[in-house]
Amino acid sequence: MSNEQIWAPWRLSYIKADKSPKPGCFLCEYRDDDQDAENLVVLRGTTSFVVMNRFPYNNGHLLVAPLAHKASLQELEDDELLECGKQLQQMTKLLAELMQPQGFNVGLNLGECAGAGLPGHLHWHIVPRWSGDTNFMPVISDTNVIPQALTALYELLRGRVSSSSA
Description:
Elements: H1 12-16, H2 26-29, H3 36-39, E1 41-44, E2 48-52, E3 62-66, H4 78-99, E4 103-108, E5 124-129, H5 150-165
Antiparallel strand pairs: 1-2, 2-3, 3-5, 4-5
């Protein structure tokens, strides 16, 4: 069994980050579109948006959220729910074309006890998956790692989203 090095330098800021609860909501901070590149916002709709997970479980991990700070599905208006669903559909299609994953985990955690890291602002996760990948990266022999910087993937996604919107 060989012990291979896996480099994920973008994770260092997460590891060193202050984990104490912070006031406010980072998704609400991303409502203003003048810092989309800095905030890794891939797509904006009328009532929802798509942002890259800054600390992904896998390459291509995206979040789809309503613009409004709402904690439950029951709080969403029909147009918000529909637009989030359309963005989930659009982003899984785009990731399939760009990254050729063999599957996806798509879901949301409702409430802190269900695993919601941001329980007050509903958001869906899209996580591309490949045979042989593992949750949360335990290092075992022959584990495949798909390395790509967040900014490189962001540019790919934004380029495709922009060209399909035109």
